[in-house]
Amino acid sequence: MKRLKCVVAYDGTDYSGFQVQPEQVTVQGTIEAALQRITSETIQIAGSGRTDAGVHAQGQVFHFDTHSAIPLEKWRFVLNNQLPDSIVILSVEDAHPDFHARFDVVRKQYRYCIDNGSVPELFRHRYADHYRHPLDVECMQEAARYLVGEHDFTSFCSAKTFVEDKVRTIYELKVMREGDLIWIICEGNGFLYNMVRIIAGTLIEVGEGKRDPHDFARILAARDREQAGKTAAAKGLTMWKVLYE
Amino acid sequence: MKRLKCVVAYDGTDYSGFQVQPEQVTVQGTIEAALQRITSETIQIAGSGRTDAGVHAQGQVFHFDTHSAIPLEKWRFVLNNQLPDSIVILSVEDAHPDFHARFDVVRKQYRYCIDNGSVPELFRHRYADHYRHPLDVECMQEAARYLVGEHDFTSFCSAKTFVEDKVRTIYELKVMREGDLIWIICEGNGFLYNMVRIIAGTLIEVGEGKRDPHDFARILAARDREQAGKTAAAKGLTMWKVLYE
What we know:
homodimer, alpha+beta, ten-stranded mixed β-sheet
C-alpha cells in the first residue's frame, strides 16, 4: 500500500463542485471513477478542500492510497487518459504515509479573474466574470490592504456557514490589471465559505465607485455579512495553488 | 428597412456548427432566436460562411435586414443581453443595402492552435488541440511555404465536398510558437471543406517527424486527399477574421 499526492487542474463549469455528492457529477467523483477503472480498487481521494460548483482549479491537491503496481512515472499519463479534457492531472508523486492533503495545508492561493474589456474576451468567458464599466484598480488595491493580516472574517463569510472560529490570516491580497483582465490574488492560511468571492464582490463595488476603500475597515469590524458586498460569480474564481510544509 | 453588419465571436464547443440545421443547436439559430425576441421580426442572418461543429470564431461576420428603430449604438448591448456567454457580438455597424457578408468576402483568416505542453493548459482545453510530444516548428514552417500562392487544393479538401473548382489562393501560412502554444495562421481568398484542418493535420505530421517538409510539393501535385495527413480536431480551429473591400 502506498500513498500518492496529485496536483490537478479543472474547468469547474460543468461540475457540481469538487466534493462527491449523491446524483451529481463532481470532480472528485469523476477522478474516483477513473481510479476504479485503472486499479479495480475502490478508492476514495482526499482533497485539500472543496470548491463550489462552477469554481475552477489550477493547482488543487489530493491524495489517495493504492496497492496498484503502476510505476510512479506512468501515473499521470494513465490517469489523464481516463479523465475528460476538463480535468488535467499535473503531477503525481509519492507521499509519506502520514501526509494528508487537507490537514497538512499551510497556505492556499485563490485568484479571481474579472474581464474588464468593453466586450468579453471569448476564450475567457468560462473563467472570468465580465464587467464592462472600467473598474478603478488603485481604489480596489487600497481597500484590499485592510484585509491583510489576522482578522475575524465574519463579514466576508456566507451566513450559511457552521464554522465557529472565523479568524483567518490573509498573507497577501493583490489587485492587478493585465490588459483587459483584473486579477485579485488572495493567499491565506485558510478560507471560510464564499470568503474569496465575497471579498471579490466587495472589491468590485469599490472599483465601481459605489464604496469608499476605507469602508473596508468598518465592514471588517462589524462582523456582519450584511455589511459586505455581493458574492462574486463562481466562474471567475480559481483555486490557484496549495502549499504544504 | 436597413442592413446591419455584425462581427461575432463564439465558443463553438457546444454548437452543431454555425449554420442552421433542423433539430440542432447552432450559432446562427441562437442569434436568429435572439433577434426575434428583440425585434418581433422573423430575421434570417447571412454569415460569411459556415463553420463546422466545434469550430470557434473570433471574427465571424454576418448581416441582416430589419425595420427595428433600435439606435445603432445600442444594438451590440441589446444583442449580447439576449445571447448566451458563448456568443459575443463584437460590433454592429450600418451596411450598404448591397453589402453581402458571404459574396463580398475578399480574404479570410483562420488560426489553428496546438497546445504543445507536456500537460494541457487548462484554460485552453476547449480551444487548442493537445500534442504532448514536442513538434518541430521550423520543419512545419518549411512545409507551409509550399502551400502559399494559387494552387489546386484537392489534396487538402474533404473527399465529401461537391465544389468543382478547387483552386484557391493562400496569401499567408505561418507556423509560430508562443510559449507552449503553436499557432498555424492561414489567410486566403477562400477555403474548401476541412481545408485548414487537413493542412493543420498534415503539418502536425511534419512536426512529429513522420513526414518530410518537401513532401508537401508532392501532396499538392497529387490532387488526392489520400496523400495528405489526418484532419486535425475541430476544437483547435478558430475563424479569426473576415476581410471585405
